[in-house]
Structure formats: C-alpha cells, structure tokens
Amino acid sequence: SYELTQPLSVSVALGQTARITCGGNNIGSKNVHWYQQKPGQAPVLVIYRDSNRPSGIPERFSGSNSGNTATLTISRAQAGDEADYYCQVWDSSTAWGVFGGGTKLTVL
Amino acid sequence: EVQLVESGGGLVQPGGSLRLSCAASGFTFSSYWMSWVRQAPGKGLEWVANIKQDGSEKYYVDSVKGRFTISRDNAKNSLYLQMNSLRAEDTAVYYCARDSTTVTPPDRFVDYWGQGTLVTVSS
User: For position B103, what pLDDT does the model report?
Assistant: First the structure.
C-alpha cells in the first residue's frame, strides 16, 4: 500500500516561514491535500490538490508538489498556526485514502 | 453553512456494539460521498468507511470489514456507522466527513469535518 512520510515535528520562529514535507513514491503524480488540526479540535482542510486554498484559509498557507516530495509552506508564522498538520492522497491502486503520520508545528 | 454533528459515542465493553449517527445540514446531502474517519488517542487519522451518494457503494478499511456497516438516510440527511464486535483498538474519536471527489483522475479529500464523537472500548 502507498505510504506517506512526514517529519514528527517542525519548529519555526514567530514571523518566519515554516515548511512541512510529505514524502511518497512519485507523489508528484498525485494530488496532495493538507489538513490542520489544533488540540482538541477536528481537522480543517487548508490546501487541496497540491496548492489550492479553500475559502477562509489565509494566503500565508501555500502548497507545492513535485517528484517524491510535497510541501506545505506557512509564511509569516503566527502562534495560532501551532497545530498538527496531515498530508493525504487518494491511492487509485487501492481506491483508498492515505494519511501521513502528521507533523507537529511549534512556533517559537 | 455546512454542519456535521455526530452522536452516539460512549464507553462499550469489548465485543459490544455501538451505532454512531451524523446529522448533516447546510448542503445537499444526497449529492455527496460521505465518510467516517477515526483518530485513536494521540495517533493520526485513519479512513474507516465511505458511502456513495445513493448508498449503492460502500467501502471499508480492512481492519473493520465484517464488523462495521456504514449507511445513510438521504431523506433525513443522516449518516450512520453501526459498529459490532468492538475491540480495544477501535477506541478513537470518530469523525463524520464530507468527501470532495473527482472521477478523472480518481481523487478524494475531506472538505468538511464534524466535531467528532469518542468511542472507548474497555472492560
């Protein structure tokens, strides 16, 4: 089955740029979606199909996907961005959704 | 405004049963694939089951096949998950989720999530 690999944790200084990666075999050929989950809350979609932002998501959130790595970029990081972030793809070979293990973002 | 409100979670003994419900509002429920996604305590997300708009297709993660049944009632804008033969490893928050899907290329993601309901399987 298809696997997605995320770093367990990423730290970023307040106001700087955070990059969270999601690795998978030839992931660039798939659509990657990203979710933000704050403690005690349900996940929220922040990026869909590699680089699209749902309405209400700040422009500071962006995404890219190429080769074996997809990246969620958070510019001008704020304290309120502290959360777990999950990447997700739809594995067409198994017709099932796959989530990465999640990355905890800490804003210092 | 899209709203998904789960109910039915609680404490159940191993081998027991539980039925989760999800009340949907703010969108045309019958037009969307729907899913249940769970999250064990301190763990990541796992897709559990999904169901086509008219209920004619249902899919499950291997670990729940034969034990869980997803269903829907479009007249009541409701999604259900019947869980039988529950195990300790089924302990998790269960989220009702609205799917956004494309056929070509095949793709799916969750565009709206409920607040979740906690299922605890323990003696």
Answer: 84
